[in-house]
Task: structure prediction
Amino acid sequence: MFQSITPLRRMLFSLLVLLALAPVPAFSLSVMDPFNLPASMDSGTVKLGDGIAYADGPRHKLDVYAPETRDAAAPVVFFIYGGGWNRGERSDYQFVGRALASRGFVVVIADYRLVPEVRYPDFLYDSARALGWVQDNIAQYGGDPNRLFLAGHSAGAYNAVMLALDPAFLREFGVTMPILGVAALSGPFDFYPFEYGEVRETFGSAPSPEGTQPINLVTSDSPPMYLATGTTDPIVRMQNTESFAQKLKSNGVWVTTRYYEGFGHMEPVIAMGSLWRWRMPVLDDMVAFFQMFGAFPSGVPYVAVAPNAPEQLPEAIAPMEQIVDELNAMFQPIER
Result:
């Protein structure tokens, strides 16, 4: 989980009070808490599965979110969170699960093993194994395994793209579900040579470093991709998205790009949640992309009402801005 940052604890506590929610003990505060509080997330959704084991071990568990009202089988989004490959918890991204569920998707968010317990490519095999669980079980939760989309943010965007580009990972676990599209936010796709500590520790022992780079694995069979980034991302510069998009286009692969002016690394994923959705239309853009490639062939998804800027709580905006700045500051650059 994102570790509690001592200078932010007082701010987080104050923000929780401003949001008129029950306070939590200081030792449990996380910088992601404001986005995952009940008043900050989409209603009309339900958590159908909490901590379901897809393999042995504490990091091999997943959660399932869905619309509260379900009729026919729904499209599935498998979302992979980021964290520099060495941090992160599925519980930090409840707001993403409920955001996509509010638009009619069954959503799976799985933990995976992290550095230093593992190195590349073991965390990719973990997610591939979790997709094996999805293939075998998601119909029981109202999901259609034949309408599968991958999504991810930061390191999770890398993971999602790699699973889509290199069939060896899915083949290892007998995963044959078609991947209809991939949505990648703030993702690193071309970062060799490895110049920063986190990246060297994660990928430095790979026998073929160039083979760890998504930009080198694109073929004409790659699935359609939605690539989005903030234009002022200090962690993964938007040139990563630009060069990867160009490689996809040159191979005849459909790519939709979105560049959110003036935003950094964490903002695109945070804006998926209802608390910050007024900042940028990333959720609408992602759902529209999924719709283009068969998410809802018989109709249109449920559209949640995007909130206006929280004028009723103007004093909360400055703390939120500082929280996002602190989140951005937690990561080393992962782009050469």
